[in-house]
Amino acid sequence: MIQDDVGVERRAKYIPVKQKFAISHGVALFWLVFSIAVSYPWVLEFGKLVTLPIALFVIAGIAYIPGYMNAFMVSSLLFDRQPPFRIENPKEPITILIACYNEENKIGETLRYIKQQSYEGDIRIIVIDNNSSDKTFEVAKQIGEELGLMVTVISEPKPGKNYALNSGLTQVETNLFITLDADTLLHQEAVKYIVRRKLSAPEDVCAVAGAVLVRNSRGNLLAKIQEWDYFIGIASIKRLQGLFQGTLVAQGAFSLYTTDSVKLAGGWPDAIGEDIVLTWKLLENKQKVYFEPLAVAFTEVPEKVDHFFRQRSRWARGMIEALKVVKPWQHKNIYTRYLTSSNLLMPYLDLMYTFFWIPGLLLALLGYYWLAGIMTILVLPLALLINYILYSYQKNVFKVLKLRIRKNIIGLIAYILIYQIIMSPTSVYGYFQEFFKLRRVWR
Question: Transmembrane ranges (predicted)?
Fold first, then answer.
């Protein structure tokens, strides 16, 4: 008997992770061979313009490899079943770390949502004021007292989220702690579910990433698009990685960690993607990181294009930092090694998409189909299938949590049609920043 996301027990044959990995690869390789066979005339035609080696190099980046990855993801997600919880009502004392920079207008609401948690254990809160120029320190202390929460407010004068979190870590006395962004609101069951997953997991699981969704999805079109990215795109990647026991980012916005593991890893490094690098160090230490879709928090996403551009380019830069600090082949777990190795391809794919697929799409509108070939069109059904599978999973999650999926059709259409056109150039800029060692900023 197993339990799915809605908590209903049903009979199913257990398939070991090793077999799931092999089957998913088999499906992906079949799709790759099929892609090459179908696109042969396209490659020859494009090769007449740019030579055959260049044609293969470009088409592999805009069609073959994305198709392979999508096929692997589809087949893997079809196997995804969250393991059952062994602990129903955990009462383990925990600490929540909240690093703040000029958050006097938001920290109060964040604390109020913590107050509403259904968790039965003690929740201790450490707010770290990271060189704010407003009244974050005073507001956090005052509202914590008004709500009757166990809040400790400390100051970290050195700018940088990693310095703030490391200062907070020195104050943690519980075995488990959660990191939470100051603009992130917890669902009332969030702490309970994320602790349940950790206490129900094997001993070598040292962190659990929560599911972060969008709280300001009623904003402009950019926010509406990001709602689907968080709801489907990011969730699908985390489910895939969690299935193979190596969620690659226990995001600082909402994740749970074992205190000893983070201290052993040296805390958060001085990096633009401090949560990515920390997660990879934990994985390098032969530990595992899970993902819990029922532990939901809502964060505020950028509504201005320049803010979005800075955030996502920072994420891309953080991935490169992690690849430099912890090489894929240094991971002990074969699945984590594979997943992190896949990230080595991301700069290549984003470059191909930015400098070939987007111009090729514009040329296709003018009647020149050199790059908008049949295989780039065939990648789309796989992407749609991934979105449908994840939508079904997330619908079950929302049912358990008594949440309603907001109708956001315009955002969904824009997400499917134009989101990658926005994301790839943004990521390329992040790679550019890291390559030329441009100045790093938290916000």
Answer: 21-42, 54-79, 344-362, 368-391, 412-432
